[in-house]
Design brief:
The protein has about 260 residues and is α/β, with parallel strands linked by helices. It has a single domain, classed as 2-enoyl-CoA Hydratase, Chain A, domain 1. The protein has helices spanning about 30-45, 70, 75-95, 110-120, 145-155, 155-165, 170-175, 190-200, 205-215, 220-235, 240-250, and strands at about 5-10, 15-20, 50-55, 60-65, 100-105, 110, 120-125, 130, 170, 180-185. Helix 3 packs antiparallel against helix 10, helix 4 crosses helix 5 and helix 5 (about 145-155) crosses helix 6. About 45% of the residues are buried. It binds 4-(N,N-dimethylamino)cinnamoyl-COA (DAK). 4-(N,N-dimethylamino)cinnamoyl-COA binds near residues 24 and 143.
Length: about 260
């Protein structure tokens, strides 16, 4: 079998990618990021596929973030490299695809999971969706473009509130913020994503590819580079060791100011 962590279904002109690690709430480990890259790349090159719908398996989560157990032992260099590599391989890659990606967000979309939804071109959600960037509660910062794309999509003030409090927002608040286009009951989520896809499918794929490029060109790269640098720096702090250990030990972290 080509993929271990995701399911890819083609129903041309649509394709569906389901992140399939429900026991870990679909947390993004390195293997899943690699597979997602390959699947998006294949589908983007497939002339019969014109829209991609991305969702998470199970009832609880779209994606509950990067896999904390995997990255907790990284040093500054590994953190920086992985952020740069992950951004290029998945998050910037999805944002720059010529084939539109609709994220169908069911349940938790946290950290890297929200960042993946933010990199998608359109987001629809079920009413049990919960979004947040909890990174600072772990002693790290969003490292997959979240500091940039959240502010682009919902504005700097609301983005800073979400990033600094590390709190989750419910689906309707996220819709009010402009993060979701539509919120529907759970059993209607995939139909709603399909309906959104059908509207896109009426239009010119060539023009759509150019429109995505044009919209993306309006946003600079400097902030993304800064985010990678500062993300690496976070891996050198005592707060990072404390925050990730506390998560795994299921206790409250004891943070200190520099
Ligand atoms: N990573 C690994 N395992 C996770 C996980 C995650 N992000 N989220 C959940 N799980 C696992 C739990 O450990 C648990 O596993 P077992 O103990 O059963 O083996 C299982 O999924 C079910 O989770 P819970 O038992 O916690 O379920 P609850 O319903 O009680 O709580 C929750 C649901 C979503 C509130 C909770 O699971 C939670 O707080 N999860 C963590 C959310 C979070 O902080 N996510 C990470 C955000 S930081 C990087 C680049 C970017 C990033 C990192 C590195 N590099 C370039 C290196 C980004 C970081 C983030 O995404």
């Amino acid at each position: 079998m080509k993929y271990q962590n995701i399911i890819v279904e083609k129903k041309a002109p649509k394709a569906y990618i389901t992140i399939n690690r429900p026991k870990q709430l679909n947390a993004l480990n390195k293997a899943t990021i690699d597979e997602l890259h390959d699947a998006f790349d294949d589908l983007n090159k497939d002339k019969d596929i014109h829209v991609i719908i991305l969702t998470g398996a199970g009832e609880k989560a779209f994606v509950a973030g990067a896999d904390i157990k995997e990255f907790m032992n990284f040093n500054e260099e590994q953190g920086k490299n992985l952020a740069a590599q992950g951004q290029e391989q998945l998050f910037d890659f999805v944002e720059g695809l010529e084939t539109p990606v609709i994220a169908a967000v069911n349940g938790f979309a946290l950290g890297g999971g929200l960042e993946l939804a933010l990199a998608s071109h359109i987001r629809v959600a079920s009413d049990n969706a919960k979004v947040g960037l909890p990174e600072v509660s772990l002693g790290v910062i969003p490292g997959y473009g979240g500091t940039q794309r959240l502010a682009q999509i919902i504005g700097k003030g609301r983005a800073l509130e979400m990033i600094l409090t590390a709190e989750m927002k419910d689906a309707n608040t996220a819709k009010e913020y402009g993060l979701f286009s539509v919120v529907v009951p759970r059993d209607q989520l995939l139909n709603t994503a399909d309906e959104m896809a059908d509207k896109i499918l009426k239009n010119s794929p060539q023009a759509i590819a150019l429109a995505i490029k044009a919209v993306n060109a309006g946003y600079g790269r400097e902030g993304f580079e800064k985010e990678i640098e500062l993300f690496g720096k976070a891996f050198t702090t005592t707060d990072f060791k404390e925050g990730t250990s506390a998560f795994v030990e299921r206790r409250k972290p004891d943070f200190t100011k520099n």
